[in-house]
Write a sequence for this structure.
């Protein structure tokens, strides 16, 4: 039986991880779970899985959860705050930690888990975007595996199995193109939050879905791929593939291209990461080649979807620039979701931030945290959140 901690258990990836656990309850044991405000979902998780520890980072949600279980007998210890979040990530009984929390908040619990010697099933791409070098060094120091959960990186990971990484020419990172594929910048001026959240292929959380609509999600994945697979940015090619059947590809120097294909369902990369190198019975529907449409491939439109271009540039620059990129994106997406700015304003705010901060080297995690705060404060003062 494999003991699992889930950091961000009530979001999209966390919920699907619970489905994978549920599919073979004798194979997995849920040890620790965390969430922010979703105490009602946490109630159901505690009732069903009886984890050792459950953490909420929102104080009111924590109080509500404690109140619900006040007169009930449970073995789960309910805790509050960031320190408890790190405690859940580094739980002594966990074999693997699924880091599915969204945003830069996932950096510290991931590092805490690594330092506790836990393998990481990484779904929090921001961790590698802002702290890739530090995370990789820590993983090497503590001898832990970082197993990608993103469908694209999980696909690349599989396409590399059994091959010499020195023989890789390019990583081909596929993107659905989101709900606005083919639109011009002018056509995107007045799109609504509801339209932006209407992803054609995937069911994801709101922040990631907006990132998909701007192609920033693909930009963050480019930076993530750079760190996961030690590939130069010039050898990581983003390709729009609207059907989301091919989840990514690896091109080798002899001209061979190996792809990983499946229906668009996150339970597959989650299951593969949890059980690597073992393959288990399918938790997804089989791919029916006779019912899928023809497969299309397009170049991304970097003139309209500038966020992808900014991500390549920030990744190449290194230092704190990916942190600036990520902080500005998190801030701008939050404003858009609250209907305080237009869709196109997202890339304008990111461009502003990238041109308002001088680059510098990252000395440690504190450098990242401090620069993130500076970017957010700059944007708050300028855009009056």
């Amino acid at each position: 039986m494999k003991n699992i901690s889930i950091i961000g258990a009530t979001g999209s990836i966390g919920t699907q991880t619970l489905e994978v656990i549920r599919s073979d309850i004798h194979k997995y044991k849920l040890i620790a779970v965390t969430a922010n405000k979703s105490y009602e979902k946490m109630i159901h998780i505690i009732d069903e899985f009886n984890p050792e520890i459950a953490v909420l980072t929102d104080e009111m949600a924590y109080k509500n959860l404690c109140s619900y279980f006040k007169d009930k007998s449970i073995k789960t210890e309910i805790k509050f705050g960031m320190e408890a979040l790190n405690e859940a990530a580094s739980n002594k009984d966990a074999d693997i930690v699924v880091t599915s929390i969204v945003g830069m908040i996932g950096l510290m619990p991931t590092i805490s888990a690594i330092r506790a010697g836990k393998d990481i099933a990484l779904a929090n791409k921001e961790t590698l975007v802002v702290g890739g070098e530090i995370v990789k060094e820590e993983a090497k120091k503590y001898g832990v595996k970082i197993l990608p959960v993103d469908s694209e990186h999980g696909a690349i990971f599989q396409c590399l199995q059994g091959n010499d990484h020195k023989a890789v020419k390019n990583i081909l990172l596929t993107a659905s193109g989101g709900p606005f594929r083919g639109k011009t910048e002018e056509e995107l001026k007045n799109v609504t939050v509801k339209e932006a959240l209407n992803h054609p292929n995937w069911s994801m959380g709101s922040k990631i879905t907006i990132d998909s609509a701007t192609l920033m999600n693909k930009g963050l994945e480019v930076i993530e791929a750079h760190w996961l697979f030690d590939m130069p940015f010039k050898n990581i090619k983003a390709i729009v593939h609207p059907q989301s059947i091919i989840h990514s590809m690896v091109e080798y120097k002899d001209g061979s291209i190996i792809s990983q294909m499946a229906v668009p369902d996150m339970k597959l990369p989650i299951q593969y990461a949890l059980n690597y190198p073992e393959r288990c019975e399918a938790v997804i529907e089989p791919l029916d080649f006779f019912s899928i449409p023809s497969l299309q491939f397009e170049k991304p439109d970097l003139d309209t979807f500038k966020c992808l271009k900014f991500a390549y540039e920030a990744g190449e620059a290194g230092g704190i620039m990916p942190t600036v990129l990520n902080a500005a994106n998190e801030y701008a997406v939050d404003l858009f979701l609250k209907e305080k700015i237009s869709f196109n304003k997202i890339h304008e705010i990111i461009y502003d931030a990238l041109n308002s901060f001088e680059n510098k080297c990252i000395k440690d995690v504190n450098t990242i945290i401090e620069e993130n705060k500076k970017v957010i404060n700059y944007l708050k003062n300028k855009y009056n959140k």
